[in-house]
Specification:
alpha+beta, 283 residues, 8 helices, three-stranded antiparallel beta sheet, nine-stranded mixed beta sheet, 27% strand
């Protein structure tokens, strides 16, 4: 029988240690509880046109999760840190923020840490795909509806499961429903569709992420007179649409060629894509 000894012990992938390695301990709350937020950000020719929108979402999430946001943090602060980190003038960047170690579910303090990682990209603009995407509706998960639904966090197990289901079924991506069986989003993108000349997307109240590209498209309603409607949708709504596409900050607009056997056009989507490319270029 083992003698009981008070103290800490760690088995890290088979290695017995007296304590967690410092780097792991620093991210303890992210590892244990997913107590973290992140942003996926694209750099175009050394510029970050959507940085203000990313900071708006990130800072909103930090406040909602009761972090003590440093006075020095701002869109300009993180833009400088990102550009200082990237080796390429075109890059895909991930900014991750988590709470400092300590506590169980209740944190001992609310100070944040951040990590920036960057991957160089060849292109200085969003790319249009002539092939289009194949989508389907995921059955394995439903997304919750609460005050944190609009933010991007490390609590992403449902999105991972949906992405695995989509891959197993031969789709490029999957549409995920919320807990009330309404259309929410894809695994890493917001969802839009055309009903005639009206551009539609689920409302934030249905649990989708507050996407930065989503925000740009909604602004087109004001600046270009485009008819845009935020409306709840079902399986039938999507299959009745004329055109269907996905949006995110890394890839821009990606049109959907087929979903559950329905084949879509992309004429209006391509025109919208060119408007967005021009807006990003001129920001």
């Amino acid at each position: 029988m083992k003698k009981s000894i008070l103290g800490n012990s760690v088995n890290y992938d088979g290695a017995l240690l007296g304590a967690m390695p410092p780097d792991l301990w620093d991210a303890q709350r992210a590892i244990y509880y997913g107590d973290s937020l992140f942003e996926s950000i694209r750099v175009f020719n050394g510029r970050i046109p959507l940085m203000a929108a990313h900071w708006d979402r990130l800072s909103g999430g930090l406040k909602a999760m009761r972090y003590d946001v440093p006075a020095s943090w701002s869109a300009d602060f993180f833009e400088n840190e990102i550009l200082r980190t990237t080796l390429s003038s075109n890059a895909r960047v991930r900014l991750t923020v988590w709470r400092t170690p300590g506590g169980l579910f209740l944190p001992e303090n609310n100070d944040p840490r951040f990590l920036i990682t960057a991957q160089g990209l060849e292109s200085s603009r969003f790319q249009w795909s002539e092939q289009g995407l194949i989508l389907g509706f995921c059955n394995s998960v439903r997304l919750p509806l609460d005050a944190l639904s609009g933010f991007k966090s490390l609590n992403s197990a449902r999105y991972v499961a949906a992405a695995q289901e989509a891959h197993a079924r031969g789709w490029d991506d999957g549409i995920v429903l919320n807990a009330q069986e309404r259309v929410c989003e894809a695994t890493s993108s917001n969802l839009f569709w055309f009903e005639g000349n009206t551009l539609c997307t689920p409302p934030l109240a249905d649990g989708c992420v507050t996407g930065t590209m989503r925000k740009i498209l909604l602004q087109l309603r004001d600046h270009h007179g485009l008819g845009v409607q935020e409306k709840s949708a079902t399986f039938a709504t999507v299959l009745a649409a004329d055109e269907l596409f996905l949006t995110n900050a890394i890839r821009g607009i990606r049109w959907v060629r087929e979903c559950e056997g329905k084949v879509y056009d992309c004429t209006k989507t391509r025109s919208l894509f060119e408007q967005v490319v021009e807006k990003i270029r001129s920001e």
